[in-house]
């Protein structure tokens, strides 16, 4: 047992997931970083590359990497097993893996788009919960376990051309609220973090979907007047993972630059 707090983070190779790994590891956590690290034929933009994931392990000695798709429930059980075997337990799980699909009205979004969005963005979080929550509960009391799922401003507002994505992120929020109720009186909490427009590869893909040359246009409705940086969202995620966040469960941290004010 390391004496460090231990986390599993999915979607860890780039974007908010990667910065969350760096933030936690920099704060002394041991982290198992999970990412598919391969393109998906049903996703029309490039996904993370293996080198991006492996760089995290090179950067921090207490980071282990697992190449796995969150649609593979057994692989997430394996990542949690690695955390317990290597570091002695689990204190937080962060579901940051997601894809964005859309481009037309709801009635034109295909069955394949709906399946991919719900399989990755929703069932990926559910698979992480099934694997991680029993491990969080295996910690002796008094527990300070944390389950954190990345939702989105799209979990709270309708967005043109992204109806299926909005539906998936609303489902993530519902999953977190139900999970928090199931965790009552255990010391383990469940929260969602809803980012606004954040400067990531997914935001660039969203701008391309809308035919916008500049991602800054996507942040015009945020009170910040600019896209957020991944580090700003990761700071909220890291706080949600900490023992200090005990009073926040079954609810949402709106790290959205004021978009949903």
* C-alpha geometry: globular
Look at the structure and give the mean pLDDT: 96
| Helix/sheet category | alpha/beta
Radius of gyration: 17 Å
Query: What is the terminal separation in angstroms?
Result: 43 Å
Question: Main traits of this protein?
Answer:
12% strand, 41% helix, 7-stranded parallel sheet, 261 residues, 7 helices, alpha/beta, globular
Q: Could you give the topology of this structure?
A:
Elements: E1 6-10, H1 15-26, E2 30-35, H2 50-59, E3 63-67, H3 73-87, E4 92-95, H4 111-138, E5 146-150, H5 163-182, E6 189-193, H6 201-210, H7 230-241, E7 252-253
Parallel strand pairs: 1-2, 1-4, 2-3, 4-5, 5-6, 6-7
Helix pairs in contact: 1-7, 3-4, 4-5
Describe the overall structure.
- There is one protein chain.
- By secondary structure, the chain is an alpha/beta fold.
- It has seven helices and seven strands.
- Strands 3-2-1-4-5-6-7 form a seven-stranded parallel beta sheet, sandwiched between helices.
- Strand 4, helix 4 and strand 5 form a beta-alpha-beta unit.
- The longest helix has 28 residues, at 111-138.
- It is globular and about 50 Å long.
- The protein starts with 5 loop residues before the first strand and ends in an 8-residue tail after the last strand.
- The model has no long low-confidence stretch (mean pLDDT 96).
């Amino acid at each position: 047992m390391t004496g460090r707090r231990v986390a599993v983070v999915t979607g860890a190779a780039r974007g908010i997931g990667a910065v969350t790994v760096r933030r936690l590891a920099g704060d002394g956590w041991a982290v198992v970083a999970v990412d598919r690290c391969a393109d998906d034929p049903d996703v029309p933009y490039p996904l993370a590359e293996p080198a991006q994931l492996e760089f995290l392990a090179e950067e921090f000695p207490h980071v282990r990497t697992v190449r796995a798709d969150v649609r593979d429930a057994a692989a997430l059980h394996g990542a949690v097993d690695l955390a317990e075997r290597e570091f002695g337990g689990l204190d937080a799980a962060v579901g940051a893996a997601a894809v964005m699909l859309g481009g037309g009205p709801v009635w034109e979004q295909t069955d394949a788009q709906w399946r991919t969005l719900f399989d990755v963005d929703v069932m990926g979080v559910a698979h992480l919960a099934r694997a991680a929550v029993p491990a969080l509960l295996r910690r002796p009391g008094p527990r300070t376990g944390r389950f954190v799922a990345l939702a989105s401003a799209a979990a709270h507002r309708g967005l043109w051309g992204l109806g299926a994505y909005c539906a998936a992120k609303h489902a993530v929020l519902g999953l977190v609220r139900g999970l928090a109720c199931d965790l009552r009186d255990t010391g383990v909490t469940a929260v969602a973090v809803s980012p606004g427009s954040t400067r990531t590869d997914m935001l660039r893909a969203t701008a391309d979907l809308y035919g916008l040359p500049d991602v800054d246009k996507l942040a015009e409705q945020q009170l910040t007047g600019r896209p957020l940086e991944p580090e700003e969202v990761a700071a909220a995620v890291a706080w949600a993972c900490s023992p200090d966040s005990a009073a926040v469960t079954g609810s949402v941290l709106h790290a959205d630059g004021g978009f949903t004010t």
